[in-house]
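Bug #77: duplicate submission created two jobs. Keeping one. Sequence:
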Amino acid sequence: MTSQDTPALPTIAIPTIALPLLSLAAFGSGISLRVMDPLLPLLTRDFSVSLGDASLVVTVFSIAYGLSQLLFGPLGDRHGKYFVIACAAIACAITAASCALANSLPTLLIARFFAGCTAAALIPLSMAWIGDVIPYERRQPVLARFLIGQILGLATGVFVGGLAADAQQWRLPFILVAAIFLIVGIGLLILNRKLPAHAKLTRAVEGSAILHMLAEFREIAALPWARLVLGTVFLEGAFLYGPFAFIASHLHHVHGISLTTAGAVIMLFGAGGFVFALGSSKLVRYLGETGLSLWGGFILAGALLTVGASAFWWWAIPGCFAAGLGFYMLHNTLQINATQMAPERRGAAVAAFASCFFLGQSVGVGLAGRLIDQFGTRQIMLIGACGVAVVGINFSRCLRRKQQQLTA
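Kept job's structure:
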């Protein structure tokens, strides 16, 4: 069977627990993504390294996460997306436990690399699976609700990381993450057996799987709109998460607040995203995709400016909330376009999208980590603010032009 965009799919036959389980997997992924941000100052002390060197634990995770998308997308198309997600969740439990057992920065970096590899399957393949079973006209609100899990995970990650940092126990969050993934993985494997046939779409592939995978990505890269979406999400990841990874360190070092408090403030990023998820249907109706991407970029830029330039730490409270709202306005619009830029190869297309996003993050965090000791956190955030504003403006303009061409 092939993965096609079929509005008439009988989605009612899908068990109601299917989407919440995916959202819970995204919750664990979100914790893994951001749990290290507040822990960076503790790692600098425990391993006697600079803040830039400690930030490699964020960079290697993002690199592994981004590159592994190129493998999991075609695997999901070939063996069933839900099944691959379930297996990946079990693998995430193992790699999270290995992070907790690391006894040096090099071994932690290796463990974080493999944690990024295994987590890579969860969110992109979940998005692609939703694209397979939910018609396009209803897809954006469903994607927004699914992403509540990731949003809450991101918020929980920075908060738990802050608590662990102040308690001088950076290993504990990984034990929590391993337990979450083990429970979710078992649940996904059990439910996969109960899914109807149309929710377990696979595509038979003849010949070399690697050559077929490369051919799929070449065909996606040949599409002009796909190149634009992929390039945009790469820059979004670089300009946002380069400075975002250092917000906790900025609040701790510049304003002198505890890492627990800094983590609690950054949790408001998730609250802003949660507000978007709840109001996504109305926002889509009133602003449209072009308005969401334009205003999302502006709000996100203003938020980074507020956090970076303010002389008082409490300005980070509305700043982090606005950053979450603006980010999901922009990013969710990019996501919905990613699910539709190559419907017949949706698993590979969404995997390429996620790969570009996280490779952008790794580049952004890596560059920021190299520059931060010289320029400071404030300047890094100002650069990020300018970048996300340009990204939002440009994508909104290109999206408007595309819509005009379709209606002409």
